[in-house]
């Protein structure tokens, strides 16, 4: 995950901090929790990422970096960490899945920007450390967590020289080296020399060695000389007393330099800086023009204003695919939020919610369209911003219906991303606020039931589903009925009643066909093919072939992969191993590339069955081991899936019988150690 340390430097070189790096390495060797503390802008995140580079070889099971600065609520901490570590479908309790995952691992967990969730993070880290004796945790925060055994490393400003000292002494200070590096970036050919060393030292002293202050000040050299910059910094700056009174002295330079940088912005740049504070995940140009324009900013001027903020190092510009994205360091985003005028807040919030409601609706993955994959990637990038829109809606009852509509429209994203806990969190908050028996509530009920069923939470799913079916049969809600019936069919399979389950799926499919709803038809064909593959393989094959044809005709890549998986399971049950292998191998390659672990794991499982049918039991055991590792990260198992349970059990017993217990265990264990990328290579390499 990207941390805001990368935003601070834009990929620039790391300078200094040798003592801190050495201390951190020793602390992580001797202790289990290290917290880097210090004010915003002092470089905690950048240092943490540098520490990771130095110590990652100590951790056999890797390093997980979780950025928490974009997380608006502590209730999403556990699912956010689980998702960052690759644990999808964690069931109703992500903490238990996390505990199981880290319990035996020698790994480092990095939690970045924890100060706004300090108490919750403290309890969270304490529990993980109690159950995972080889886990180490590195935290960045403006305050300590207060956990027993916590070691604290204060991150202080870089040392500054005496401006009256000799040039040879001045150049040895890290603050001067950082200034020289950043000044050279805006003034090609600049280097420290006898004729400028004292002025650079004075600048470093004026900025008190704070990296963020250095970044902001150096950027001004595009438009003024070094002497002019020093004169500007020496002028009195109106620092807000309320922000300073409780701060440590070293906060003054950060705040003063930020105030100074803000003061040098044009009124339009200041207004845009404040409005951009709404976007924790940054923003592209189209969104900035749509949401941030108006009330003093013309849409045609947004690009020039953004360019000005980039030039001043307030905003970082990074390339994403074929476009550019603009982001701010968390401390600068927080500053912008303080400067957002009260008269701006409500109109900005309204435009923001409208924009992300439209974006989510336009990016639905449950559509038979050629840009499914691009939609999924777009939602992954925009999720922190979407969370802000959801919170804005669900914390204001008049907007609750809009928030519930957004959460429901994301249902397919919640499934593919494995973010079931988060999806249900927003849905259930919305359902509490929208009791009216209309289409919005009915839709949210079947979505919530679908996510609960994926988690194996029948106890919560069935009452929601019963209410949904009741509402869907009322006038005005008829469009919801096919979805409610489809969900009831999945619930019947999950309860062991496959005859009723298939009957309900066929009923739902007929309703979608009658309404000429190809998107609904596509989804029903998948469920009917996959769940019907056991016991109804002949009819399921028809469903699967139709789904594959539909997906290919509409160039829907994600739907095509799931069609290949479902049809592969069907062909396996019909005894056609060659076609099953071709279909599932193709799906495995695609889902491995796009990191769709839910589909990939099932592909590995089916390829293990096929290897076993060819009497290649060692390969079958290895593939089952590779699948097992992924099942574990998702908190799932093949025994919980109707169409996997029998094949899994048969393959395992045949391999164990053919190889013997010890050889089977060895091959299985080797498979678990492959890792996702090597597992895909192994799976598609063939015998």
TrEMBL record:
GO MF entries: ADP binding
Record Gene3D superfamilies: P-loop containing nucleotide triphosphate hydrolases, Tetratricopeptide repeat domain
SUPFAM superfamilies to which the protein is assigned, alphabetical: P-loop containing nucleoside triphosphate hydrolases, TPR-like
Pfam assignment, any one: NB-ARC
PANTHER family the record matches: HTH-TYPE TRANSCRIPTIONAL REGULATOR RV0890C-RELATED, REGULATOR-RELATED
Segments forming domain NB-ARC: 33-143
Protein name: LuxR family transcriptional regulator
Record-annotated Winged helix-turn-helix domain positions: 269-341
């Amino acid at each position: 995950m990207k941390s805001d340390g990368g935003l601070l430097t834009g990929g620039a070189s790391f300078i200094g901090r040798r003592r801190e790096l050495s201390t951190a390495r020793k602390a992580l060797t001797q202790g289990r929790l290290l917290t880097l503390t210090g004010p915003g802008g002092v470089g905690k995140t950048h240092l943490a990422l540098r520490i990771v580079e130095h110590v990652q070889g100590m951790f056999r099971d890797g390093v997980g970096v979780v950025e928490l600065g974009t997380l608006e609520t502590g209730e999403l901490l556990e699912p956010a960490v689980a998702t960052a570590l690759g644990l999808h479908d964690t069931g109703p309790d992500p903490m238990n899945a996390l505990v199981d995952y880290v319990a035996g691992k020698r790994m480092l967990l990095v939690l970045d920007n924890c100060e706004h969730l300090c108490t919750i993070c403290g309890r969270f880290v304490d529990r993980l450390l109690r159950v995972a004796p080889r886990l180490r945790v590195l935290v960045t925060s403006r305050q300590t967590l207060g956990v027993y055994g916590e070691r604290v490393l204060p991150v202080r400003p870089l040392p500054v020289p005496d401006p009256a000292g000799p040039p040879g002494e001045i150049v040895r200070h890290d603050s001067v080296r950082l200034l020289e590096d950043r000044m050279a970036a805006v003034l090609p050919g600049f280097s420290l020399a006898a004729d400028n060393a004292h002025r650079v030292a004075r600048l470093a002293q004026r900025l008190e060695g704070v990296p963020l202050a250095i970044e902001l000040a150096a950027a001004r050299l595009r438009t003024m000389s070094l002497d002019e910059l020093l004169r500007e910094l020496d002028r009195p700056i109106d620092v807000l007393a309320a922000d300073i009174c409780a701060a440590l002295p070293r906060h003054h330079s950060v705040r003063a330099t930020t105030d100074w940088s803000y003061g040098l912005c044009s009124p339009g740049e200041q207004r845009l800086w404040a409005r951009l504070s709404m976007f924790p995940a940054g923003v592209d140009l189209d969104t900035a023009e749509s949401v941030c324009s108006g009330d003093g900013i013309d849409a045609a001027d947004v690009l020039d204003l953004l360019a000005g903020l980039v030039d001043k190092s307030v905003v970082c510009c990074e390339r994403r695919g074929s476009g550019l994205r603009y982001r701010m360091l968390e401390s600068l985003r927080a500053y912008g939020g303080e400067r957002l005028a009260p008269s701006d807040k409500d109109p900005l919030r309204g435009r923001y919610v409208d924009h992300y409601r439209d974006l989510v609706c336009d990016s639905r993955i449950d559509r038979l369209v050629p840009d499914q994959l691009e939609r999924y990637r777009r939602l992954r990038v925009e999720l922190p911003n979407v969370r802000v829109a959801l919170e804005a809606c669900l914390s204001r009852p008049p907007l609750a219906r809009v928030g519930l509509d957004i959460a429901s429209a994301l249902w397919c994203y919640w499934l593919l991303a494995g973010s079931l806990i988060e999806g249900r969190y927003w849905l259930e908050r919305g359902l509490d606020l929208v009791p009216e028996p209309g289409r919005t509530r009915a839709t949210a009920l079947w979505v919530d039931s679908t996510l609960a069923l994926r988690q194996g939470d029948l106890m919560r799913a069935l009452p929601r589903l019963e209410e949904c079916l009741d509402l869907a049969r009322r006038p005005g809600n008829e469009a919801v009925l096919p979805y409610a019936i489809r969900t009831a069919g999945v619930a019947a399979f999950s309860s062991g009643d496959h005859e009723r389950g298939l009957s309900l799926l066929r009923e739902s499919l007929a309703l979608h066909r009658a309404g000429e709803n190809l998107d609904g038809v596509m989804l029903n064909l998948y469920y009917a093919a996959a769940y019907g593959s056991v016991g109804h393989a002949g009819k399921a094959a028809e469903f699967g072939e139709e789904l594959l044809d539909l997906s290919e005709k509409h160039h829907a890549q994600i739907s095509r992969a799931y069609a290949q998986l479902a049809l592969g399971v069907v062909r396996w049950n019909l005894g056609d191993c060659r076609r099953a292998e071709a279909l599932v191998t193709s799906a495995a390659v695609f889902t491995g590339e796009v990191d769709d672990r839910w589909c990939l794991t099932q592909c590995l499982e089916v390829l293990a069955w096929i290897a076993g049918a060819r009497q290649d039991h060692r390969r079958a055991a290895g593939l089952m081991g590779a699948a097992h590792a992924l099942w574990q990260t998702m908190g799932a198992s093949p025994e919980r899936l109707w169409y996997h349970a029998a094949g899994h059990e048969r393959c395992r017993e045949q391999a164990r019988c053919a190889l013997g217990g010890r050889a089977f265990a060895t091959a299985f264990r080797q498979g678990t150690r492959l890792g996702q990328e090597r597992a895909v290579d192994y799976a598609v390499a063939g015998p």
